[in-house]
Amino acid sequence: MIAPHGGGATALYASRPARGREETTCRGCGLVLPARPGPEHAFVGASAACWERYGRLSRAMAFEHRSPSRMRRLIEDAYAVQHPGVRQRRSVQSVAIHLMGLCVLLERDGEQRRIAPVLGRTPPGRRLVLRWLEPPQPNGTLTIADALDGEIGDELRSELVEAWARNVWDAWAEHHATVRGWLGSAA
Length: 187
Hints:
By secondary structure, the chain is mostly helical. It has one domain. It is built from seven helices and three strands. It has a three-stranded antiparallel sheet, with no helix packed on it. Helix 2 runs parallel beside helix 6 and helix 3 crosses helix 7. The longest helix has 19 residues.
């Protein structure tokens, strides 16, 4: 359910040559990386190079961490929220779900049991009304590169992922009341 960064000319890839090779700026997080061809998510606003790092971090955590579900959720949620895409139905839903995930994990002491009911369905008789939330500028000051910092052990990597996720969640502070309201509606 990951989604891309929103709007206008700033959402386009910005490429520039550097030291004889081309670099690209990720339209979601602003990370400047060597340009590379590769797959991109259908509605996540990330460069191919940044998307590759997301896959690399996800795989690293699966192998390094003893209890990967919280870390896997933090990585997925932080990445999706930091790369919200453009205003479209799938992006609205994705960003909302991943913001709710960050809220549950970071503010509600990781109530893992709440994630499935909140993110999987709405209670009978209630309809969760989601809307586009304008992404903050900047959308966090840490990126996936900060969480994927070389060859490190699982405890340090977990701390880096946690710091990155919290940094992204904090960047969306103006929308926290809306997200908490969505969680309240779905509870």
